[in-house]
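Hey L., structure's done. Input below.
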Amino acid sequence: MTSERASAVPHPGRVVISVDAMGGDQGPAAVVTGLQLSARRNPEIAFLLHGDQAVLEPLVRRQRGLAERCTIVHAAGAVTMTDKPSHVLRNGQDTSMWSALESVRRGEATVAVSCGNTGALMALSMLRLRKLPGVNRPAIACLWPSRNPQGFNVMLDVGADVRADAEDLLQYALMGAAYARNGLGLERPRVGLLNVGTEEHKGRAELRAATEMIAAAAGPGGFEAIGFVEGNDIPSERVDVIVTDGFTGNVALKTGEGTARLIRDFLGEAFRNSILSRAAALLALTSLRRLQKRIDPRRVNGGVFLGLNGTVVKSHGSADATGVSAAVKLAFTLAQSGFQERLAQRMAGATPEARTAQLPCDGPAPKSDPAPATAALAPAARAPEGSGGGVT
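Output:
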């Protein structure tokens, strides 16, 4: 069950997911329990679990059947929520977060999952995995509950970088469309650009330029451009992918989470108000449980870092076992779909020089085995500006 870095090997015949066990507010016990939930539901998953071996071994052994599916890779250090990304870049080589990303870089695992510090995770991901060719700024994509048949919309960026020019927004549109195809099974996702109105003359100059660039790329990009969308369209059936900068996206995400909690609290107060309301709550219990499950943020936990030479899923920092299991499920879905290889192919044609080339839409994964999503050891990378927000 325990492995040193030099001898850590994937589990044959299974999708291997690399997990930072020491990140997050709930501690490694919640992470390990979440892995058990995922392992119980899916026999095709195996894990490389990174962290303090003395802490993790007893936790893993308490979960029935998990030890056979889990390899512990010892890492003595841990990244805290208060650590600055620049400090982690210089001093984080012995941490579980660094080790988890290293497994993806080396091809030992397909996807990395962490509940840890968002800014540090993005900075380390850019350092260890590097950006895909054709990508200026990586983005964090999240799933937003919606009225669409698939139940969710994709929104990006939600916190990787507070700035985005027209070229960045175009790249977000391409990456978001690829994510919607592979993560939600949409053949031709509808992509909209978040603005203060849907009229063509509204918004900043870079938004007006970006919507024209997105419309021009829609045909060869395999998606439908619907122009500008507003904040009330984020959960609607009008759009599948919402594109915005990280500042706006993060504010929208946190506002949505706060509103969902407020509605839940108001409903609870209303149903506890009197004997009659308590009786009404009992009569509506099945419907209320269905609603709770539908809007439970734990069940859509996981923001995906897009634009890197490897897939990274950022779980909410306060995620419990249910939330961790949801993030692992998302990671497994993307790994099974061959998402990383398809995204790399898509973005290879997204440079200005290749913009006019007609690329095939994302289709079946290539028959030949793709090269591992690794990158050569590189000099220290600058922490992305504005990192530290996003899915915390």
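DSSP finds twelve helices and twelve strands in the chain. The longest helix spans residues 246-271.

-- N.
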